[in-house]
Amino acid sequence: MDLFNLSGRVAIVTGGNGGIGLGMALGMAKAGATIVVAGRDAAKSAAAVKEIEAAGAKASAIPVDVLKEESCRELIAATVKAHGRLDILVNNAGMSIRKQPEELTLQEWHTVLDSNLTSAFVCSHAAYAELKKAGGGKIINIGSMMSIFGAPFATAYAASKGGMVQMTKAMATAWAKDNIQVNAVLPGWIDTALTRRAREQITHLHESVLRRTPAGRWGEPGDFAGIAVFLAAPASDFVTGAAITVDGGYSVLG
């Protein structure tokens, strides 16, 4: 058995049209998986599909609005209709509103929690029956180092990502009997569109990150290809409920 072979597997990646999601999608694609890129920006998703196909893999784009339950459920149904099965779900879609807690409105709080955490629950809930039908599967939830640390500008984001880790553990214990492994990946400071905006909003963030990260650099989306393949493949069949940091050592100095 090839422990890292994903041939014949079908993977959904929410927010898979850029950043960490695309990095994970490309990793799984190169290991043989068929990728469904799920996002709201059709042009961006189409470009991601072309990039994945250029790597020699099969890919398609299915639109989703993760803030809508019906859209999340339609994503799962459309994937199975198009590809005949579902084996891997990566709950990567997310966003942040950077404000001090006293400045957050309740609507902003709900927007962040619903985008990052509730959407992952709904997609996983919808995927469960299909993963079970396939004889088992993998769910990879994207947390954050804010699952471990707090930050004055990330109250709602930290709450959503802390919740992601605890949800991961609960789902892992519930679905182990069905041969479904559920794990979380906790990215550190990664060079994406989201963090580029953070660097514009937070004074000296770039210097602070470099100073604190033992690896001496920001992460890149490609740094998530390997962990995605591992957690999606048979190599991780006895790994479930884990929260794995991918942060260049940032959290070690906590």
Number of domains: 1
CATH homologous superfamily assignment: NAD(P)-binding Rossmann-like Domain
Number of helices: 8
Rounded to an integer in angstroms, the radius of gyration calculated over CA atoms is 17 Å
**What is the CATH C level class, in words?**
Alpha Beta
The helix-and-strand class reads alpha/beta
Write down the CATH topology: Rossmann fold
Topology order in helix (H) and strand (E) letters? EHEHEHEHEHEHHHE
How far is it from the N-terminal to the C-terminal residue, by CA?
39 Å
What's the count of strands?
A: 7
Average pLDDT, all residues = 95
Strand arrangement in the largest pleated sheet:
3-2-1-4-5-6-7
**Low-confidence regions:** none
Strand content: 5-15%
- Broad shape: globular
The CATH architecture is 3-Layer(aba) Sandwich
Biggest β-sheet strands, sense, barrel:
7 strands, parallel
Which helices and strands appear, and what pairs or packs with what?
Blueprint: E1 10-14, H1 19-30, E2 34-39, H2 42-54, E3 59-63, H3 69-83, E4 88-91, H4 106-133, E5 137-142, H5 155-175, E6 180-187, H6 193-201, H7 205-212, H8 225-232, E7 243-246
Parallel strand pairs: 1-2, 1-4, 2-3, 4-5, 5-6, 6-7
Helix pairs in contact: 1-8, 3-4, 4-5
3D architecture notes:
The chain is an alpha/beta fold. It has one domain (10-192, 221-245): Rossmann fold (3-Layer(aba) Sandwich). The protein is 45% helix and 15% strand. It has 8 helices and 7 strands. The protein has helices at 19-30, 42-54, 69-83, 106-133, 155-175, 193-201, 205-212, 225-232; strands spanning 10-14, 34-39, 59-63, 88-91, 137-142, 180-187, 243-246. A 7-stranded parallel sheet has the order 3-2-1-4-5-6-7, with helices on both faces. α1 (19-30) links the parallel β1 and β2. The model has no long low-confidence stretch (mean pLDDT 95).
